[in-house]
Design a protein that fits this description.
Family: Belongs to the HAD-like hydrolase superfamily. SerB family.
Mean pLDDT: 88
Protein name: phosphoserine phosphatase
EC number: 3.1.3.3
Strand content: 15-25%
CATH superfamily of the largest domain: HAD superfamily/HAD-like
Number of strands: 11
CATH topology of the largest domain: Rossmann fold
Distance between the termini: 32 Å
Radius of gyration: 23 Å
Helix content: 25-40%
Active site: 132, 134
CATH architecture of the largest domain: 3-Layer(aba) Sandwich
Number of domains: 2
Largest sheet: 7 strands, mixed
Structural class: alpha/beta
Number of helices: 14
Cofactor: Mg(2+)
Length: 346
């Protein structure tokens, strides 16, 4: 069967006869019950498809550490772009940060996304997902789009990029950017931005799939509420939290200030916990997805925190990464195959 499949796909395979080795005596560690201990899953995603170099490197790394492969499952349908490898670890690797760091290093070197998770009930009990908005659900930074229309694009963009890299205090940078919008008509600005929203590839498919699975979904943004509410409407989200720009009631012009609580990094984390509490689930049952330094507390609090095409500081501070511009990869990290997704859509 192997030879036939390889021939059909244009591969040439040579089989070498190995010298038979005597079987080692049976021990508790070789007993089949131990296959169900220390179970983990290694998820490998590489688009458009997993290269032979990538697959070899991952399998070699597992072999060198004495990791037993229990099962290999293909998650993608049309191309071999995603695999889930179920493994059980030797006792000395349980909780080893060095092993998971090596897998992350492979991911960076090979241009793949590799996630290493414990295969326990928590993976199947998640009920809530929260998203950052700018450069996560949508491909723009809303404050930059507002600034372009207001004619102060370059000044605001420089402040935004520094804030997302973690070089500026988020609150102070927001205050400075908002001040530059003073005197412009709020309704006109937001109408133009909402008309030109560009959703990240996979955002709509991801949200529609999770909704069918019964997930509650929220956007928690350091951007602005009118746009967050538009994203909520388009994607069918349950909650939307963002900053509110103060508007002069008589003129409809922006005052250059915000009103109400500012969505700081700490408030993002608090809102995640609050929504989980309202929905009656544990924080461990949540997923968070974001790209900026202001998302780090939220990502590290959630049961599964995913840095999506994130800045280097965010990647260094988080365990799970997606570096391909396709949000449907989130589904692979929760163990859902494309085949299952297509059945849900059907």
């Amino acid at each position: 069967d192997l030879l036939f499949a390889c021939h059909r796909n244009g591969f040439q395979v040579n089989l070498d006869e190995q010298v038979k080795q005597p079987l080692s005596p049976k021990s508790p560690k070789s007993c089949w019950q131990h296959y169900f201990q220390n179970r983990h899953v290694v998820t490998v995603v590489q688009r458009p498809q997993i290269s032979g170099e990538c697959l070899c490197a991952v399998l070699r790394n597992l072999s060198e550490h004495g990791v037993n492969i229990v099962k290999i499952q293909r998650l993608s349908v049309h191309k071999l772009a995603a695999l889930q490898i179920t493994v059980n670890l030797p006792g000395d690797l349980e909780g080893s940060e060095d092993f998971s760091s090596q897998l992350l290093g492979l991911a960076r070197t090979l241009g793949a996304d590799i996630a290493f998770q414990k295969d326990d009930v928590d993976r199947w009990m998640r009920r809530l997902i929260v998203f950052d908005m700018d450069s996560t659900l949508i491909q723009q930074e809303v404050i930059d789009e507002l600034a372009k229309i207001a004619g102060v694009g370059e000044e605001v963009k420089a402040l935004t990029e520094a804030a997302m890299r973690g070089e500026l205090n988020f609150y102070e940078s927001l205050k400075a950017r908002v001040q530059l919008l003073k005197g412009h008509h709020a309704e006109d600005l937001f109408r133009q931005v909402k008309q030109n929203l560009v959703f990240t590839p996979g955002a709509k498919k991801l949200c529609s799939t999770l909704k069918k699975l019964g997930y509650k979904m929220a956007v928690i943004s350091g951007g602005f509420l009118p746009v967050a509410q538009e994203v909520q409407r388009e994607l069918g989200l349950d909650y939307a939290f963002a900053n509110t720009l103060e508007v002069d009631e008589k003129t409809g012009l922006l005052t250059g200030s915000t009103c109400g609580p500012v969505v700081t990094p700490q408030r993002k984390r608090a809102l995640l916990a609050m929504i989980a509490n309202v929905e009656g689930c544990e924080v461990q049952q949540t997923i968070a997805v974001g790209d900026g330094a202001n998302d780090i507390p939220m990502l590290n609090t959630a049961g599964l925190g995913i840095a999506f095409c994130a800045k280097p500081k965010v990647q260094a501070a988080t365990e799970f990464h997606i570096n391909h511009q396709d949000l449907t990869s989130v589904l692979f990290l929760i163990g859902l195959s494309e085949h299952a997704t297509e059945r849900l859509a059907g």
